[in-house]
What we know:
By secondary structure, the chain is α/β, with parallel strands linked by helices. Helices cover 34% and strands 13% of the residues. It contains eleven helices and ten strands. The chain has helices at residues 2-11, 22-34, 50-54, 78-94, 120-127, 144-148, 161-167, 198-202, 214-220, 227-240, 286-295, and strands at 17-19, 42-44, 65-69, 99-103, 137-139, 153-156, 172-175, 195-196, 255-259, 266-270. The strands form three sheets. The chain has a six-stranded parallel β-sheet with strand order 5-4-3-6-7-8, sandwiched between helices. It has a two-stranded parallel sheet with strand order 1-2. Strand 1, helix 2 and strand 2 (42-44) form a beta-alpha-beta unit. Helix 4 packs across helix 5 (120-127). The longest helix has 17 residues, at 78-94.
Amino acid sequence: FDYITDGVLARHPVDILYINNPRDLKLFQSILTKLNLDSSHLKLTGLPLLDSSFNEKPPLTNKNTICFAGQPTVPNNKKGKTYILERLIQVAEKFPYQKIYLKPRQRPDQLNEHKLKHHYEKTLTKLKETRKIPHNFSITYEPILSLLQKTDCFLSLSSTAILESLNMKIPTGVISDLGFRDKLGTPIFLDSGITISFDEILEGKKPTNESINKTWLQNFMLSDGRNTERLFKFVDDMVDKQQLTSKMVSPKESFHVNLTSSYENYKVQIPPPLIEPPKSDKKPSKIRKIIESFSR
């Protein structure tokens, strides 16, 4: 609860706070209401990322391909990363006719918003010193949508790619071996119906679309191909009504907001947005004009 409340309060000063799913909208509205704070700027848009996978056709079945999506900091220790690797290698050894891919979020030397810890590729290199790696296991950096098209079983701990896979109607499983903790991002999947362990996979069990809890899916996922459209519509509406003035600040500045709540003298620091204004545009949009004016 602390993480969620802190996150909501840190974002509260913005003009529009985009919400990815109906469950989070209700939760955030409830938190702000209890703290006597305005929640009218919470807008349900859905995750814009899902628009791309919404338009993708489901891949053909019986491709005998399992893909695991890794994350930079989940798990955030060498022991956890090594465990995932060893278990995937066991699956590859047990089912030599299946291709087993591990898809990291980024390459070892690639910049990312998450601090990279114990990259899977480096961990695999170390693991090769003590054991043989089966021919049907490999690490890939192929774009996720392209990779999903050749996958008929998708696995992860809590990657956003889980939603993309579900969006494409691919049998999807959330690995339960490391437990359900906030640091792993796994608690939200408790009622999903798609949790599975490596032991179950080694026994021949695979995720199925029939096991998905439809109520959970409706609460935690909004995808109709219009998420990005809704996002920009809310901004355009506020610009038309000249409402984007009270809270926005220059990207060159950072500021503090004192909120009167159950947290006494709660202090939130808002970092400067990482926005680079366009160099030139013959007919800049309303949104670009705002960004440019704040970046001068």
